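# step 3/5: fold
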Amino acid sequence: MADQLDDFATAYRSLVETTCEWRAYELDDPAAMADRVFAELRAAAATPTLRRLFRLVNQVVAETYQRQTDQRSLTQGLVQGLADTWRRPAAQADPGMAALSRLSYADGLLLRQVAWDDLSFAEMAEINGSDTAQQERRYARALAHFAAKLPPGTADDPAAIIRRLQPGTHRRWPATPTSLEVDVH
């Protein structure tokens, strides 16, 4: 079991760091979060699967947000909320980010799983509990919804727009450029 878990951790370490980073951007170190995910996976002593792995990612991300909340006073939270509100119009000036923020949670997650996590449709099917063909259809529908929310003349390659919006520096595959390395506007 230990060898199987070690192989699984080696195969999916960069994926876990990548997904932890964008899900809890700037709240904690993605490598430390990945360490916690794999420690929980080891403690479970069960056969590692992508579905189990992503449940643990969600758990660790939720714990990270809770820890951040616990470390703030109500006043700090209100001040930060106001600061975020004042900054929001500049962030929303990006038509891609505005379109992504107007999608349903399910559509946005599907697009992020493909563009930001670099998941295959087969991996998405395992994680989301469905089949590959259904994931492909749902992705195509979500991408069409995203493209429809973009301003006219900007939707030539909606998938590329989503990839460019990914925050942070971690990528599942080293050859994937970060948003800092490409023009996101």
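# step 4/5: annotate
DSSP finds nine helices and no strands in the chain.
# step 5/5: archive (pending)
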